[in-house]
Amino acid sequence: MTNNRGGSAGDDLLRWVSEAGAGSWERLRDACAYVAQKHGNERRPWTLASDLSALGHLDIDWRTRSWSVSPPAINLVPGLGLCVVLTGSRPFYVDRRFEEATDDLDVFPFEVPQAPSPAAKYAKCASVEVAERVAAGMGALFVVDPATGLTDALRPVDEEPIDAAPQPLLEEARRFDAVTLRWDLDHGRRAGLYRIDLHGRPAHRRLDQYGCWWAIDLSAGQFLTLRDRDEPVVRWRPSKGDSPARFDVRRELSLPVLAERALTVSSGLVPHVDGAWRQYGNVRREIAERIAAALLQPLRTTWED
Amino acid sequence: MPLWKLKLEPDRYEIRHGDSAVALQIVDGIAEAAGPGAGSVRHRGRGQALVVGTVSSGVTGARRPVTVPAPAPGDSLVLLGCRPGEQHVVARPSWLSPLVGFDLSWKKIDAWPEFEAVWLVMRGVRGRYEASLLRAAEPDVSDDAHGTQWARVIAVSKLRDWEGETARDLWNQYRVAAGVES
What we know:
The complex is a heterodimer. By secondary structure, chain A is of the alpha+beta class. Helix content of chain A is 30%, strand content 28%. A 6-stranded antiparallel beta sheet of chain A has the order 9-14-13-12-10-11, covered by helices on one side. The longest helix of chain A has 14 residues, at 25-38. Chain B is α+β, with helices and mostly antiparallel strands. In chain B, 14% of the residues lie in helices and 29% in strands. Chain B has helices at 96-100, 149-156, 165-177, and strands at residues 11-17, 20-26, 43-44, 50-52, 55-57, 66-69, 76-80, 87-91, 108-111, 119-123, 129-133, 157-159. In chain B, the strands form 4 sheets. Chain B has a 5-stranded mixed beta sheet with strand order 8-7-10-11-12, covered by helices on one side. The longest helix of chain B has 13 residues, at 165-177. The radius of gyration of chain B is 28 Å and the shape is elongated. The chains are: A alpha+beta, B alpha+beta. The interface between A and B is large, with 74 and 60 residues.
């Protein structure tokens, strides 16, 4: 792994997954730990991989514990003023082709660092046709309005497949509390979502009202638990002055990967955490409505900053 | 020994220790676009949908945007279709400049109307909204359009001076359809 000219841990990891192509979770976890150590990053290694997945660079299958980098794509996103977003694989030669394809009077390339995640790369184009030409010039896919495609594909959390699971050991298990959004040790073996330790890795199980256990994805488990909660956990704010429209989700909650990706690609950036909320910029109301519906949540409009 | 600490440039190197030697080469990269197996993990979505990265297949295709002149900072332009309700407001993403840390300027931007735009309405040099023809299509108005936002935009706008005969005829039809002229 070469030193990525002063890039972040995320830039280094993206370079590595782009060269490696695909592999096992164990190999990716080791690479995450290596770049985290190199950059003095104290976050858990898997959070770096999760950032790459959220940003549309990487796809992880937790069931088979495998991953692959996604092919390079140029995304034309509504509301970015023809600033296309580069996602997917970013090895040295893609970076170089991006520079060559954007070395043009009709194109202005720029990037926004967001350490420890990989920098967001943009190219401001003079027209839709120029954006398409940039994609063709660097051999990348041209994706029009990716957030709409991703939310079209997004399954409601009550349609996510779940598998029957044996009863887990409950001594160290924690139960997700729908009021406080915290994980409590004092669970009393009540129905709900549980976090257990499975071979040193957190896993999630749902105990239904009939006493049956199910293996479930964290985000699906959380939002199924929250479906009757009165206090909103997601909200949308229209654009205001120099602030873009925004989708907020409570910071304690995990989103389905396709929802997370639709939100990040709307601006090309990782979310900003402000108090109790994780905030995603440049999210149109129709995208916010689709995501809230898939999460079985009402969408409240807010005017708060 | 972690070689990255030496910040070696791409080149050929040899590491010696006593009688042992190992040759190595540092390169900028190997993969042209992505390493082997790229795109092999897919997320299965609703129905037949499959997702790799930001690419969704098996879903309804997104509408394609059109390129329009950028309105002045703080101002907006309007795209009008042939039916009442078909209006789409376009403004610059002024929030982007503070985010990237330098001034971005635009001559053209993208617009994503959910209809086929017929008129582009933007402020002229004298400050009045002026309409220019994008596509020749007659108005399609079955009910009274008077009082709709679509009609209000037509009411406060004039046709651009240099528009041709076809545009002038059509603009008059739209003024009548909007209830501005009889």
